[in-house]
TrEMBL record, chain A:
GO terms for molecular function: chromatin binding; DNA binding; protein heterodimerization activity. GO terms for cellular component: FANCM-MHF complex. It comes from the Eukaryota. InterPro entries: CENP-S/Mhf1, Histone-fold. This is Centromere protein S. It comes from Liquidambar formosana (Formosan gum). The lineage of its organism: Eukaryota, Viridiplantae, Streptophyta, Embryophyta, Tracheophyta.
TrEMBL record, chain B:
The keyword DNA damage applies. Its main location: nucleus. It comes from the Eukaryota. Belongs to the CENP-X/MHF2 family. Pfam families: CENP-X. The keyword Zinc does not apply. One of its GO terms (cellular component) is FANCM-MHF complex. It is found in: Nucleus. GO terms for molecular function: DNA binding. InterPro entries: CENP-X (IPR018552). This is Centromere protein X.
Amino acid sequence: MEGGGASDVEREEDDAATDLLRDRFRLSTISIAQAEAKSNGMEISQPIVACIADLAFKYTEQLAKDLELFAQHAGRKSVNMEDVILSAHRNEHLATTLRSFCNDLKAKEPQSDRKRKKATRKEDKATTSVVHVPDL
Amino acid sequence: MENTFDPDLIHAIFKLIWSRRALERERNEGAEALDCEVGAGTSKKNRRASANANALKLSCELLRVFVTEAVQRAATIAEAEGVGKIEATHLERILPQLLLDF
Protein backbone atom coordinates (compact mmCIF):
# COMPACT_ATOMS: atom_id res chain seq x y z
CA MET A 1 0.00 0.00 0.00
CA GLU A 2 1.39 3.32 -1.06
CA GLY A 3 -0.60 5.29 1.50
CA GLY A 4 0.64 3.13 4.37
CA GLY A 5 4.27 3.45 3.28
CA ALA A 6 4.01 7.21 2.97
CA SER A 7 2.57 7.59 6.45
CA ASP A 8 5.33 5.39 7.88
CA VAL A 9 7.97 7.61 6.35
CA GLU A 10 6.08 10.61 7.65
CA ARG A 11 6.02 9.17 11.12
CA GLU A 12 9.75 8.48 11.05
CA GLU A 13 10.44 12.05 9.97
CA ASP A 14 8.06 13.22 12.63
CA ASP A 15 9.92 11.27 15.31
CA ALA A 16 13.27 12.56 14.12
CA ALA A 17 11.93 16.11 14.23
CA THR A 18 10.58 15.54 17.73
CA ASP A 19 13.93 14.23 18.94
CA LEU A 20 15.77 17.18 17.46
CA LEU A 21 13.39 19.67 19.04
CA ARG A 22 13.49 17.85 22.34
CA ASP A 23 17.28 18.05 22.36
CA ARG A 24 17.28 21.76 21.56
CA PHE A 25 14.65 22.30 24.23
CA ARG A 26 16.72 20.31 26.73
CA LEU A 27 19.77 22.48 26.08
CA SER A 28 17.79 25.66 26.75
CA THR A 29 16.31 24.18 29.90
CA ILE A 30 19.71 23.10 31.16
CA SER A 31 21.14 26.58 30.79
CA ILE A 32 18.12 28.15 32.51
CA ALA A 33 18.11 25.63 35.35
CA GLN A 34 21.84 25.90 35.96
CA ALA A 35 21.75 29.69 35.96
CA GLU A 36 18.86 29.57 38.41
CA ALA A 37 20.64 27.11 40.72
CA LYS A 38 23.74 29.28 40.61
CA SER A 39 21.81 32.38 41.58
CA ASN A 40 20.45 30.40 44.55
CA GLY A 41 23.98 29.46 45.53
CA MET A 42 23.29 25.80 44.81
CA GLU A 43 24.75 23.14 42.62
CA ILE A 44 22.40 20.90 40.69
CA SER A 45 23.14 17.35 39.60
CA GLN A 46 22.92 16.53 35.90
CA PRO A 47 20.20 13.84 36.07
CA ILE A 48 17.93 16.27 37.91
CA VAL A 49 18.40 18.92 35.25
CA ALA A 50 17.60 16.37 32.56
CA CYS A 51 14.54 15.32 34.53
CA ILE A 52 13.30 18.90 34.81
CA ALA A 53 13.91 19.33 31.08
CA ASP A 54 11.75 16.32 30.28
CA LEU A 55 9.04 17.58 32.60
CA ALA A 56 9.13 20.96 30.93
CA PHE A 57 8.94 19.34 27.50
CA LYS A 58 5.88 17.32 28.50
CA TYR A 59 4.39 20.49 29.89
CA THR A 60 5.04 22.24 26.57
CA GLU A 61 3.24 19.48 24.69
CA GLN A 62 0.27 19.78 27.00
CA LEU A 63 0.38 23.55 26.68
CA ALA A 64 0.28 23.31 22.89
CA LYS A 65 -2.86 21.18 23.04
CA ASP A 66 -4.50 23.51 25.56
CA LEU A 67 -3.71 26.62 23.54
CA GLU A 68 -5.08 25.10 20.35
CA LEU A 69 -8.31 24.16 22.09
CA PHE A 70 -8.68 27.55 23.77
CA ALA A 71 -8.19 29.40 20.49
CA GLN A 72 -10.59 27.05 18.75
CA HIS A 73 -13.18 27.56 21.45
CA ALA A 74 -12.90 31.31 20.99
CA GLY A 75 -13.47 30.80 17.26
CA ARG A 76 -9.95 31.88 16.35
CA LYS A 77 -7.31 30.13 14.30
CA SER A 78 -4.47 31.97 15.91
CA VAL A 79 -3.37 31.59 19.52
CA ASN A 80 -3.06 34.91 21.32
CA MET A 81 -1.83 36.08 24.71
CA GLU A 82 -5.22 35.65 26.36
CA ASP A 83 -5.07 31.93 25.64
CA VAL A 84 -1.69 31.64 27.31
CA ILE A 85 -2.93 33.50 30.39
CA LEU A 86 -6.03 31.30 30.45
CA SER A 87 -3.85 28.20 30.52
CA ALA A 88 -2.46 29.41 33.85
CA HIS A 89 -5.79 30.41 35.38
CA ARG A 90 -5.68 27.79 38.15
CA ASN A 91 -2.77 29.57 39.72
CA GLU A 92 -3.75 33.15 40.41
CA HIS A 93 -0.24 34.28 41.16
CA LEU A 94 1.08 32.80 37.94
CA ALA A 95 -1.77 34.35 35.97
CA THR A 96 -0.97 37.74 37.48
CA THR A 97 2.70 37.38 36.59
CA LEU A 98 1.82 36.47 33.03
CA ARG A 99 -0.66 39.33 32.82
CA SER A 100 2.00 41.87 33.79
CA PHE A 101 4.47 40.31 31.33
CA CYS A 102 1.76 40.57 28.68
CA ASN A 103 1.25 44.26 29.47
CA ASP A 104 5.01 44.81 29.18
CA LEU A 105 4.99 43.20 25.75
CA LYS A 106 2.04 45.34 24.68
CA ALA A 107 3.77 48.47 25.96
CA LYS A 108 6.83 47.70 23.86
CA GLU A 109 4.70 47.52 20.76
CA PRO A 110 2.86 50.82 20.21
CA GLN A 111 -0.50 50.97 18.46
CA SER A 112 0.81 52.58 15.28
CA ASP A 113 3.32 49.77 14.84
CA ARG A 114 0.69 47.12 15.19
CA LYS A 115 -1.39 48.59 12.38
CA ARG A 116 1.52 48.59 9.95
CA LYS A 117 2.33 45.08 10.94
CA LYS A 118 1.21 43.38 7.76
CA ALA A 119 2.90 45.81 5.40
CA THR A 120 6.28 45.66 7.07
CA ARG A 121 6.14 42.01 7.91
CA LYS A 122 9.06 40.97 5.78
CA GLU A 123 11.43 43.70 6.86
CA ASP A 124 10.45 43.56 10.47
CA LYS A 125 11.84 40.90 12.71
CA ALA A 126 9.73 38.37 14.58
CA THR A 127 9.04 40.95 17.29
CA THR A 128 6.14 42.54 15.48
CA SER A 129 5.04 40.04 12.90
CA VAL A 130 2.34 37.46 13.29
CA VAL A 131 3.73 34.03 12.67
CA HIS A 132 1.56 31.60 10.76
CA VAL A 133 1.96 27.91 10.41
CA PRO A 134 2.65 27.31 6.74
CA ASP A 135 0.23 25.06 4.93
CA LEU A 136 1.73 21.74 4.10
CA MET B 1 20.10 39.44 29.23
CA GLU B 2 18.27 36.90 31.29
CA ASN B 3 18.14 33.30 30.16
CA THR B 4 14.95 32.27 28.47
CA PHE B 5 13.60 30.01 25.78
CA ASP B 6 13.82 30.87 22.12
CA PRO B 7 10.33 31.73 20.79
CA ASP B 8 11.22 30.08 17.47
CA LEU B 9 12.02 26.83 19.22
CA ILE B 10 8.76 26.91 21.16
CA HIS B 11 6.92 27.74 17.96
CA ALA B 12 8.51 24.77 16.23
CA ILE B 13 7.43 22.47 19.06
CA PHE B 14 3.89 23.88 18.99
CA LYS B 15 3.69 23.45 15.23
CA LEU B 16 4.84 19.87 15.53
CA ILE B 17 2.18 19.04 18.13
CA TRP B 18 -0.52 20.83 16.15
CA SER B 19 0.32 19.13 12.89
CA ARG B 20 0.41 15.79 14.65
CA ARG B 21 -3.04 16.42 16.08
CA ALA B 22 -4.34 17.62 12.72
CA LEU B 23 -3.09 14.40 11.15
CA GLU B 24 -4.79 12.32 13.83
CA ARG B 25 -8.02 14.21 13.28
CA GLU B 26 -7.85 13.62 9.56
CA ARG B 27 -7.18 9.97 10.10
CA ASN B 28 -10.21 9.66 12.37
CA GLU B 29 -12.49 11.61 10.03
CA GLY B 30 -11.37 9.86 6.88
CA ALA B 31 -11.30 6.37 8.34
CA GLU B 32 -13.66 4.96 5.73
CA ALA B 33 -12.21 6.94 2.81
CA LEU B 34 -8.92 5.04 2.88
CA ASP B 35 -8.19 5.21 -0.84
CA CYS B 36 -8.25 9.01 -0.93
CA GLU B 37 -4.73 10.41 -1.24
CA VAL B 38 -3.06 11.83 1.81
CA GLY B 39 -2.21 15.12 0.15
CA ALA B 40 -5.73 15.85 -1.05
CA GLY B 41 -7.26 15.71 2.41
CA THR B 42 -4.73 17.93 4.13
CA SER B 43 -5.27 21.16 2.24
CA LYS B 44 -9.02 21.48 2.66
CA LYS B 45 -9.59 20.28 6.18
CA ASN B 46 -6.65 22.30 7.37
CA ARG B 47 -7.76 23.58 10.74
CA ARG B 48 -4.22 23.85 11.97
CA ALA B 49 -3.62 26.46 14.63
CA SER B 50 -1.11 29.28 14.42
CA ALA B 51 0.35 31.51 17.07
CA ASN B 52 0.82 35.20 17.60
CA ALA B 53 4.43 36.34 18.19
CA ASN B 54 3.59 37.84 21.57
CA ALA B 55 1.71 34.71 22.59
CA LEU B 56 4.88 32.74 21.87
CA LYS B 57 6.95 35.07 24.00
CA LEU B 58 4.43 34.72 26.78
CA SER B 59 4.60 30.93 26.47
CA CYS B 60 8.37 31.13 26.74
CA GLU B 61 7.97 33.12 29.92
CA LEU B 62 5.52 30.57 31.30
CA LEU B 63 7.96 27.74 30.60
CA ARG B 64 10.85 29.70 32.05
CA VAL B 65 8.84 30.25 35.23
CA PHE B 66 8.11 26.51 35.34
CA VAL B 67 11.81 25.62 35.21
CA THR B 68 12.95 28.30 37.65
CA GLU B 69 10.19 27.38 40.10
CA ALA B 70 11.26 23.75 40.00
CA VAL B 71 14.87 24.70 40.70
CA GLN B 72 14.04 27.26 43.37
CA ARG B 73 11.71 25.02 45.30
CA ALA B 74 14.17 22.12 45.18
CA ALA B 75 16.92 24.53 46.27
CA THR B 76 14.85 25.55 49.29
CA ILE B 77 14.49 21.91 50.36
CA ALA B 78 18.19 21.24 49.81
CA GLU B 79 19.06 24.31 51.83
CA ALA B 80 16.81 23.21 54.69
CA GLU B 81 18.68 19.91 54.71
CA GLY B 82 21.96 21.75 54.72
CA VAL B 83 23.14 20.26 51.41
CA GLY B 84 24.87 22.28 48.71
CA LYS B 85 23.67 20.24 45.76
CA ILE B 86 20.17 19.56 44.49
CA GLU B 87 19.56 15.82 44.31
CA ALA B 88 16.69 13.58 43.24
CA THR B 89 15.10 13.45 46.69
CA HIS B 90 14.70 17.22 46.72
CA LEU B 91 12.97 17.23 43.37
CA GLU B 92 10.73 14.38 44.50
CA ARG B 93 9.63 16.39 47.51
CA ILE B 94 8.52 19.43 45.51
CA LEU B 95 7.20 17.66 42.42
CA PRO B 96 3.57 17.03 43.46
CA GLN B 97 2.89 20.65 44.39
CA LEU B 98 4.79 21.92 41.35
CA LEU B 99 2.63 19.85 39.02
CA LEU B 100 -0.51 21.05 40.79
CA ASP B 101 0.59 24.65 40.41
CA PHE B 102 1.16 24.48 36.66
